[in-house]
């Protein structure tokens, strides 16, 4: 049975992967964002929130690595932590590039509309292209969110497993305590039996000596009265 520490490490790793997928989906939404600026701002706010959560979970995973009993397990988790940290930095770089590209596209579109006093055929064509890209992105995002939901379910199952492990641990501890109490009682009973056995042996020896003294006394009296000339 896996220990609670192993389950915690697995849950943390699953949550890191979930946040990573969500951030990638949001970056793709930024790339496909047709505007306005408020929509881009909202997406950036979501990315910041996910990045903060991801950063905290990576720190948690690093802390768990330091708490491992074996050196090989500690190094394995630290390697995974470093890999996830590099992936987070890669996401941040992609996020900045996506922001620059999206802002440039929005600025160019606004300038084009100002210059032509409205929508030109090329502008409408770009919007149609953007809409198709958004639909494609939405489909991808939905797939990623489905994966995220599945991982959330796995996290919940792992949490249930932790609860079961904790209950089992308490039961084992209680059984161990009862066993210790029973062992103490048996040890005390054994000492009492040995003590009573020694007492019985002592009593038998005293009785034997008393009988021997009694018979010796009787023989001595008989000898003095019946055979005085001996």
TrEMBL record:
Main location: endoplasmic reticulum
Transmembrane segments: 205-222
Localization: Endoplasmic reticulum membrane
GO biological process: retrograde vesicle-mediated transport, Golgi to endoplasmic reticulum
GO CC list: endoplasmic reticulum membrane; SNARE complex
Residue ranges that the Swiss-Prot or TrEMBL entry lists as coiled coil: 44-71
Any Pfam family hit: Sec20
Membrane disposition: Single-pass type IV membrane protein
Leader peptide range in chain numbering: none
Domain Sec20 C-terminal, residue spans: 136-226
InterPro entries (alphabetical): Sec20, Sec20_C
Annotated GO MF terms: SNAP receptor activity
Organism superkingdom: Eukaryota
Keywords: Coiled coil, Endoplasmic reticulum, ER-Golgi transport, Membrane, Transmembrane, Transmembrane helix, Transport
Family statement drawn from the similarity comment of this UniProt entry: Belongs to the SEC20 family.
Protein name: Vesicle transport protein S20
Taxonomic source organism: Crenichthys baileyi
Classification of source organism: Eukaryota, Metazoa, Chordata, Craniata, Vertebrata
Gene: BNIP1_2
């Amino acid at each position: 049975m896996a220990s609670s520490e192993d389950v915690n490490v697995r849950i943390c790793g699953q949550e890191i992967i979930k946040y990573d997928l969500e951030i990638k989906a949001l970056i793709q939404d930024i790339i496909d964002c047709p505007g306005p600026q408020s929509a881009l701002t909202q997406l950036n706010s979501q990315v910041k929130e996910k990045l903060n959560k991801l950063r905290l979970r990576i720190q948690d995973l690093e802390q768990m690595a330091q708490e491992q009993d074996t050196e090989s397990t500690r190094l394995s988790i630290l390697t995974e932590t470093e890999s996830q940290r590099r992936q987070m930095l890669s996401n941040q770089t992609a996020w900045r590039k996506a922001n620059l590209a999206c802002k440039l596209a929005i600025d160019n579109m606004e300038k084009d509309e100002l210059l032509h006093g409205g929508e030109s055929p090329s502008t409408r064509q770009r919007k149609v292209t953007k809409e198709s890209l958004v639909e494609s992105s939405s489909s991808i995002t939905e797939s990623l969110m489905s994966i995220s939901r599945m991982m959330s379910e796995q996290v919940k199952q792992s949490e249930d497993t932790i609860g079961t492990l904790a209950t089992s641990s308490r039961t084992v501890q209680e059984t161990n305590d009862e066993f210790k109490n029973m062992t103490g009682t048996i040890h005390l009973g054994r000492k009492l039996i040995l003590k009573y056995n020694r007492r019985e042996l002592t009593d038998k020896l005293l009785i034997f000596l008393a009988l021997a003294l009694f018979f010796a006394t009787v023989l001595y009296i008989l000898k003095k009265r019946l055979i005085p000339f001996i």
